[in-house]
Amino acid sequence: KIMPACDWTALVVTCKTKDYADAIQAQLEMRQKLGELSKDLMILCIEDPQEGLGSGGATLNALLVVTELLSAKNNYTVVTSDVLKGAKILILHFGRYFPYNPLGRGFVSLALNPEVGESDCLMTNFDALFKTVSTNLAHNSPPGLWVCSSDMLISFPHNYAINWDSVNINDGAVCISVPSTKQYASYHGVYKIGADNKVEDLIFRGDDAQISACTLNSTDDLVPLTTGIVFFSTFATERLLTTHNTPPLDACTYMGIDSGMDPLCLSLFFDILLPLATDVNEKEFIKGQRSGAFGQEDKKPLGKDKQLMRNARSVLWKHLRDLPLTAVHIDVGSHCYLDMSEPPSKYCDVLLNQCPEISGFKPSKQVHSYVHSNSVIGDKVLLINSIIDSGVTVGSNTTIIHSHITENMIIGKNCYLCGIDKQSSFVVPNSNIPSNSSIIGTYVNLPTTARVFVSMHSQGKLLSDNDNVEDVTINSMGEIISTQSNVIKPEVEHAKLLPFSYRNVLAKAKLVPMLHSNQAVNISDSMVLLKKHISKTEYEKWLSSVRCSFCEVLENVNHMKEFKYGMNMYFDVACKKVSEILMQNHDISLLPFFKMFTVNGEHGRVLELLDQIAIDSKRPDISARAFACIADVLGFMAGAKGGLRSGPASNKQWKQPLHYLEEGRIEEGVRALANIRKSWINHPDQLTRAARHYEGAEQILIRHAVMSVSSFVKLVPSVQAQSNTWYIAECPARIDLSGGWTDTPPVCYEHGGAVVNAAILLDGKRPIGARIRKLDTPVVLLTLLGQDDSSTQIIECTSKEQFLDYYQPQAPAALLKACFILAKIIDLESDVSLENHLKDEFGGGFELQTWSMLPRGSGLGTSSILAGAVMSVLYRAAGYSADADAIIHSVLLVEQMLTTGGGWQDQVGGCIGGVKIGRSEKILPLRVTVEMLVLTDEQAEKFNKHLKLVYTGKTRLARNLLQNVLRNWYARRTEILDICKGLKENAEDCAVAFNEGSIERVGKCVEAYWKQKKMMATGCEPEVCARMMEALRPYCYGQSLCGAGGGGFMYVLMKEEHPNDFIRDILKNIKGAQDAVVYNVEIDRLGMHLQYLMHTTTHNWYAGPTHVTTT
């Protein structure tokens, strides 16, 4: 269950440089287009106006900027705090660089996959923090300002949320804490929480006594850890904002910097929150005894800068001291600091074992990655956004992120690989990366943009504080460098150290080769640091290269290019996965991929891939799905401006490519479609129209797949029809009791189908029928009988051209024409005229009459059952006999010829009597099997007494319902997959209920079935039908609209025996139900009734048959 989230007014991200801010802005705007962030959310990514502002200064500057923009948005001409009233603002600080991810700790990719399906965007620490704060913490919070650091992973149970009604804010601030061991807290900070959850003190890197004094419970050693997450009420936010124009705090904002002031460094915790703690006194705070580095005293001599800081703290004390600071301690939370000083191996362990708990996601060792089937992956290997090609071996405890590992490479144990591109992977020496190696690739701007690689030992601590670089070298990379006969060690000893926030560390040594005067520099030149023995040539090239330190790399990352590299890697993986999922026809939705391709302007790439899959698959079912996917991509490109997806698909420009597909010339058809597509992608409405034509192409290939049923149409030669004898087939209607929609192609052969239905008589009659007789004249006479002469339609066909519109469902007698063609009475491919063909083959023509006593759109399966009746008499007239199995599969062929895309349950229900369950397997060729269910005379009588059939008076429009269902099926939406699974299971339960003779249990299955149908086809329940059902619900075990829903008939399985007038009395007072009609209904245990009539008189079939001889 997805938790509700805070409705933010603005999201502000603070960064050290404009390049970084611009790159993150692009990433967040992409998430906004994807729908991950609200379209109404104001997103601001801003650089700190000057280096060294600290978290407090960055917060104050960000608050000023967002307030200024909100003021302008609300048409104010000056900055006003009035815009903060009712606003919910989140500030995320993206502070220091992070050695193991060039994009910083905020965009560390996490080992989390969606619980279902694929992800349209990798889950990063930013996404996790945003979701966590939005759902677990800020949902239902008062308006105000939230401030959050990005240097940690924080987690709460996904169903946890703060109960803000129990938090006593008192117009102050709230800090969030989680439990921690004392040892862990000694490296960070803890709150000392007193009565009423008020914060008495903040202790950073305290000694054991200080930390022990903060324990909440004497029975354990856990203490409330500072999490880097703080909330300021609107009042407190306004109070904080007022300091921005008070010297010297104005030096923290861009206004002060632009006024020529030197920057002032403020800490969010040591300078802004500390004066709110009740046990902190004014003197020690202002003097800085608690506000130096990590909350310790600043022991520098009093100078200009130190006096300036005292003045700043004095202002903060004056403005903020009376604000209460309340702690919300969440004892089910956890915190993991992304420590820069830890070795890569520790970082790998964090990614693998300490990912935050996010609603809708689950931990995974393989996140958006593709692994070739014959590669060997060791134990505890983590893959994120990576490709592992054929023949690769990866050792245990290795982490690979944003990398393409090429064929036959061997990667040792305990490695960390990040950002190894395909080209670099090809030149890895001997296609071998030794165990305990860490390699990090990134784009840098030194002096020009280039991709460089940093190599080190997985246990090496690049950034731990040491006084001597040589000590760090020997201690952290001992056996690697010291065994090189001091070849590289002297270079480290005399490395030029750069100004950095750390002291002498290995990361400052110029070890990373970037450029060379006359040779190309690549990953292999960096990997010399991983070798136990290097050649003189390798050393000389390394020594003569232009080198930089790891610190310089981190300071000069080209963030925009690095984000683009990661996205390109995402698309490479996505293409592999799209191809695999489609070629193997997995039930996995590809919509997240298509959305991502489209939002990032990479639609051309995925469209070309889908074209190729449609060609290469050599299977109509897979090619059809590929066309449906192309339609989805075009739909994403069109967006809301493109209009509705359903619509006509017979534009003349598209006629030839679709004709290629009809003829089975798939490659020609695909390429011709693609050529037309190129000129139809310039406007949203054209894109939608193009999508409709691809859905038309999809329907053609569905027809090809369904045509595989022809192998199950077994005909036995018989005597041709005699003159002046009517061959008659009368059929019951059907009601579907469970499992409907799973009989519809392509669901029935891609998922498998199971449907329980019953043949029924209406007012004692079989309402659907057909009869045929032979004529001396070589013509085909088609008569659609109505209730009187005015509603009867007669079509005389004297040429084959009159049958060419058989595939147009709205053409006169199209169904009958399709049946004649399928029965091979009409041969459109022959050059022989209709007249000569009928004379030569049959000695004359035919008159076919059909009828239905059911209203149009009844939902009782009329068209398919009628097709079954027609095929039965046509086969007989043509000199063949066909059993029920042949008729069921013949009707499937007719439906595909008509392009109506019907399933198989209607003809099963109407051509075979009684109650039965039809099934089809998840395979081509498609075959339908039928199992008769137990229905004794006693059971039938009881069922008939409890069954009521009501015509709702609402005409059903099923075609759009079908189009939407097929679109959702091909998209493999999770909810559709779940519903289809439930439909099949419910059908099997219903079959068991019938066999047990339990009407109540059948009713429960019917009730469940109706709920499933409503989820399967949104909009299938008109309001008047819903009101009718609600009125009948107390009196029935179950009820459902028949067929696809949307109107037509509904059936009700009553708890007690009631006359029809009982139903009428209930419905007569319902608005809109005045046209409802209640029918007498009973189970028809015979099914299709075949007979012949030995005279030539015209007969009104609505009045019932006269003299009939049954065959």
UniProtKB/TrEMBL annotation:
Tell me which EC number(s) this protein carries: 2.7.1.52
Q: Name the chemical reaction catalysed here.
A: L-fucose + ATP = beta-L-fucose 1-phosphate + ADP + H(+)
Biological process according to GO: GDP-L-fucose salvage
Q: SUPFAM superfamilies in the record, alphabetically?
A: GHMP Kinase, C-terminal domain, Ribosomal protein S5 domain 2-like, Trimeric LpxA-like enzymes
Domain GDP-fucose pyrophosphorylase: from-to ranges: 81-463
Q: Name the keywords, alphabetized.
A: ATP-binding, Kinase, Nucleotide-binding, Transferase
Q: Which residues form the GHMP kinase C-terminal domain?
A: 992-1068
Where's the GHMP kinase N-terminal domain?
Answer: 837-913
| Superkingdom, taxonomy of origin | Eukaryota
Q: Which InterPro entries match?
A: GDP_fucose_pyrophosphorylase, GHMP_Kinase-Related, GHMP_kinase_C_dom, GHMP_kinase_C_sf, GHMP_kinase_N_dom, Ribosomal_Su5_D2-typ_SF, Trimer_LpxA-like_sf
A Gene Ontology molecular function term for this protein is:
fucokinase activity
| Membership in a protein family | Belongs to the GHMP kinase family.
What does this protein's UniProt record list under function?
A: Takes part in the salvage pathway for reutilization of fucose from the degradation of oligosaccharides.
What this protein is called in its record is L-fucose kinase
